[in-house]
Amino acid sequence: MKTNHLIGPFSKIYPLTKMPLRGPLKDDQLHCISDGGILVDGKKIVALGKFKELEQRAASVELLQQPLICIPGLIDCHTHLLFGGSRAQEFAMRNSGKSYLEINAAGGGIWSTVQQTRALSDAQMKHILFKRIQQLLLSGITTVEIKSGYGLSMASEIQVLSVLQQVQSQVPIDIVATCLAAHILPKDWNRSSGNYLQTMSENLFPVLRQQALAERIDIFIDHDQFLLKDIHSYLQAAQKQGFDICFHAEQFRVGGVALALEYGAVSVDHLEVIESEQIQGLGASETVAVVLPGACLGLGQAFAPARQLLDAGSCLAIASDYNPGSAPYGNLLLQAALLGTFEQLTTAELIAGLTFRAAAALNLNDRGLLAPFKQADFCAFPAADIHGIFYNPKPFYPAKIWKAGIEITPLNPYTHPL
Q1: Residue 78 φ then ψ, to 5°
Q2: Second-level CATH architecture of 5-72+369-408
Q3: What is the pLDDT of residues 221-255, one digit of tens each?
Q4: Residue 392 CB neighbour total at 10 angstroms
Q5: Smallest Cα–Cα separation from 91: which of 286, 326, 275?
Q6: Residue 248's beta-bridge partner residues?
Q7: Cα–Cα–Cα angle for 81, 84, 90, rounded to 5 degrees
Q8: Could you tell me if 79 and 321 are in contact, meaning their C-beta atoms sit under 8 angstroms apart?
Q9: pTM of the model
Q10: For the chain, which terminal residue's Cβ has fewer other Cβ atoms within 10 angstroms, N or C?
């Protein structure tokens, strides 16, 4: 009995299946299927091909009424999406000459958001998260990584990660939770930074495992709050318990990439001040380089050297770093378009950085490409070809989005307040 559902015809489908995971890409590697269809069964893709040829294999057909191009669902592989409050005042302070690190040291920055996030109830957290997820869905994002790190206590970290777990079952988007308890040393911790990291690794890590709250441990080391010996102990404890490791590194100073490579990190993120030796090391490794153009826009920094990273052989992913301080903009596609302009990235490199290479940064191999047995996550744009996605200067939203084979219609949070 046929159960396959056929979606199409699309004017062009870009499967992204003939491109390597690492290194530079040319636009002539962006092969497409014209007048194509996608055959799905449940949550998985069964086949891609000419729409007419797939019709005979379909039990049902979803006919599109306008010309649309189709790409895999986008993946935002680095965000801090669940937070309370605003840091608009800090935006003005930075524009007046204060640095991000100076604001943090004075009690603003991350600690300000920690205090505002701790004050939220579970219900308030869920309300905030639902609204922000609708914004992501509008942009064609079907998988998002979300970090904790605005709790910075046992109870608050567990609360944030538990809310992510609860919301996962209620939204048509996959949430990959990451524990960032080592964001900064909380200002209400009255013992040493080493004792803080030890407390988190000995007490929080087992809870994450027991309650399946996170599979990933992140650490921000571009400050002087954690000693190297304590960082080693923390990361070794994470590895011993089987967590994937990722790093915030080389945002303000050099040193984190070498440590990330030593621990075989799945990804190292930011990289704005990375130097040539570290670029070559990263290019020769399996660690994914994640660049965050939104943070550069927010802080007035130069973009991470994405062109050099690709030419050195890196797997380069692009993420929004959506957070209330340095990257409050969201809009992953616009960020990628601007990065492409300033770093001279091809359309192929941009779209790969938002799909299958972003999936690699999350250690996921079941999405980011359109191929049999992959998750049926894809979105369709009213553009003549794939270049139009990044060409349009205003926010460009997909016309249709499918998650696990089902079309979804996100609410516009601007016109339908939640």
Answers
A1: -155, 105
A2: Roll (2.30)
A3: 888 889 999 999 999 999 999 999 999 999 999 99
A4: 15
A5: 326
A6: 220, 269
A7: 95
A8: yes
A9: 0.95
A10: N
